Each structure stands twice: as C-alpha cells, then as structure tokens.
Fold:
Amino acid sequence: MARPREFDEEAVLERAREQFWTTGYAGTSMDAIVAATGLGKGSLYGAFGGKRQLFLRVFDAYCARIADAVADGLTGPDDGAFVRLCVHIRAAAAGVAADELRRGCLLAKGTAELSEHDPDVTARSRRALERIATALADDIRAAQRHGDLDPAADADELSTLVLAVLRGMEALGKAGMDGDRLERVAETAIGLLPRTGQASRAVPASR
Amino acid sequence: MARPREFDEEAVLERAREQFWTTGYAGTSMDAIVAATGLGKGSLYGAFGGKRQLFLRVFDAYCARIADAVADGLTGPDDGAFVRLCVHIRAAAAGVAADELRRGCLLAKGTAELSEHDPDVTARSRRALERIATALADDIRAAQRHGDLDPAADADELSTLVLAVLRGMEALGKAGMDGDRLERVAETAIGLLPRTGQASRAVPASR
DNA sequence: CGCGTAATTGACTGTCCCGTCCAAAACGCT
DNA sequence: AGCGTTTTGGACGGGACAGTCAATTACGCG
Structure:
C-alpha cells in the first residue's frame, strides 16, 4: 500500500476557493494557493493537476452548491410558494447588501472573467443558472396553482426575468450601490409580479 | 520646443481597451499592450504612467461613453418617452444576444474583477450606473407625464429595477443564455411595467 | 545653426510565474 | 524486515512580468 494523504481535500478546495474568489483566476498564483493551503507544490499538482483544473473543480462545487441551495429554498407545498419566492428575492438583495467587502458571487466573477475564453466555465455557469431558473419556474407554477400568481403568466418567462433581476442586483452591488436601494429593487420587483385579482391587494410584507 | 508625439493617444487608448476588455486586467501584460499598440515601453509609461493608471483611463472613457449613449437614447419629448424606454431595453437584450464572442461589457467585467480591491474602479462604476439610472428615471417620469406609465409608480425605484434587469441580462448573456430567451426577458420586463389603465392594452411591439 | 525639451527605443533588472522533478518519507502487504 | 506504491517538500528551469533607464532622435526658438 501507498503513503496516505496528509491533507483534507475538501479543506484544500475551500482555501483555494477563497483565494480564487478574492483575487480572481489570473490574479491568483499557484504560489499563493500553496501558501494558503500549506501543501507542497508537488502535492498540489499531484492531487489536482494544475491551476485550470483546480479552478474548474472549485468552480464546479460552488455552482452546484448555490444551485442546490436555491432549489432547496424554493421547494415546498403550493400554499407557501409565493412567500418562498418573495423571501428568496429579498434574501438575495439582503445578501448582496450585507457583503461589505463587495466580494460578490464567485459564479458571477468567474463567468465574467473566463466565460469568453473557456467553454467549460461557460457550460458550468449556464447549467447552474438553468437549474436556478427551473427552480424559480417550478415555484412560480406552484404559486399559480395556489392562486397567488396570475395563471395566465408564462412561468418560464417570468422565472427568467426574476433570474435576471437577481443577477442584476448582484452586479449593482458590486458596483457599490447601497443596500437600501438594492432592497428596494427587490420590493419593486416583487410588487410588479402579476398577481391574481383577489390576491393583488395583499403583498406579504418583509418587516 | 520638444519632440512631438508620434502616436495618436485616442488610438492607443482604443487598442489598450480592446486588450483589457478581452483578457481582463490581471490577464493583460504591458508587453501585450506594447505589442497591440506598437509603442515602445518608454513611450507607454511616459504617456500613461503605468498599468493601473492606463486601465483607469480606459475604464473612465468607457464608462463615460456608455452613460452618454444611454442618456442620449432616452432623451426626447414626453410623447416618445415610453417607446424610447422599450427600445432601449430591447436593444440591450439584442446587443447581448448579438455578442457571439461573449465579450460582454467592459464596465461589468472590470467591476467584477476589480471593484473589490480598487475603490477608484468602484467609484467609476457606481457613477456610470447612477447616470444611467437617472436617465431611466427621467424618461420614466416623462412617460408618466404623457400617460403611458402609471403616475402612481415611484420613478426612481422603477428605474433602478429596470437597471437591474439590464445588468442581469448582461450577466445571463455571459453565462451563455441564448439570444431568444434574453429577448423574451426584455419583453417580459416591458410587459410588467405599470401602465395606466387606458394604455395597458397597447404595448408597443418590436416586430 | 546649436540648444533645450520632450519622445522614442529596446535593453535591462529583479521579481514572480507555472509546472516539473527527484530524493526522502510513510504507509500496507508479504 | 523488505518491497512496491504513493505522497511530500522544496529546489529548479525557462519564461513572463512590471517598471526603469540611458542613449538617441525630432522638433522650434533664439
């Protein structure tokens, strides 16, 4: 049998993620990752292959994680669907607003930096957003069934719009827009969702 | 008198912009800019000071240019205000959709890469988006005066939401979302704008 | 025509970069 | 205990990196 690994792969990936997240792909040197993880260079290359493969691995896990989290948050019985949607939109705004360091989202940052030249990155971003859009659409359909959202609206198109608003808030946050304003964007978006006639007077409040 | 410059500063800035745009800040070497512009290293440093200052210069011009363009496109008489808004939203979607190379917007890319660590970049991004938001709000107020948009809506909040949708479409485009879907996002957003009672049946068509 | 001024050119410095390589070490199995 | 196998740690190579510098060149004014 061979010599066993001395490091925890998950922990190393987490450190590497932090590094890529804060300094970007091109801005991160393998030496920086070596320093951050404590691994020797041979171990790092032996275990992960190289800078690009390491990034892809980190990016993959990140994408999967947030897509799972969103799908989780939006899944449930029909009678809570609309509230879940509102909560999610508000939480996204609050998350961006709370991000004092303006680190933003690794998905957005990685996509912005690399999607132009790396189809593998693009594919991962697209899939993640696709999964989020699907989760939104499913929740919207549930809200329609329950009578909170206008059943005449196209759930797929509405979900893509909501996704655009979510990603837009992230972009505005990175550009330094203040938190209050971001949260008002969320409220405005929620207020414009097509409600059914009887529901349109009662918008679930956040505070 | 001194020896005159042999290069056109604007042309050099344009080449430098292309370089930063396609390979990002950290991913662009000064040697690459030297190669792209044809200048010698001494000239480049003498004229612009260094990598960071050169980028800031390029970024500044880019931000000013797009903010101007948006303000231009949204300015005019009240009776065309709503159409101008729709045209702008559709054009933004079409622009992203037509961007086969997925280069995206330098404002978005630069902000994503640098705003976290460079307050000067953040300030420039914020000001540019602020100007765009103001142009949108002015146009929305004009559309309200003319009776196309519900005068009860808060123009500032609505304009920030529209801005979020615009930046969101850009983000989705970079993640590889197909053009049709982006254009449907634009239509959905337009369709949800709060119309006045008598206007709400007549949405200006795009095709 | 020479002189001061400023632009040009590209060689150069010292640092950082990615990835490779190898000797030493840590295991389980026999 | 000896073996094969894998990990470890760090030195190393070749190249790229940002920025400097000195010698040269081009201009207009006196």
Notes: Residues 1-4, 6, 29-31, 41-42, 45, 50-51 of chain A lie near DNA strand C (CB under 10 Å from a C1'). Chain A touches chain B through 50 residues (CB under 8 Å).
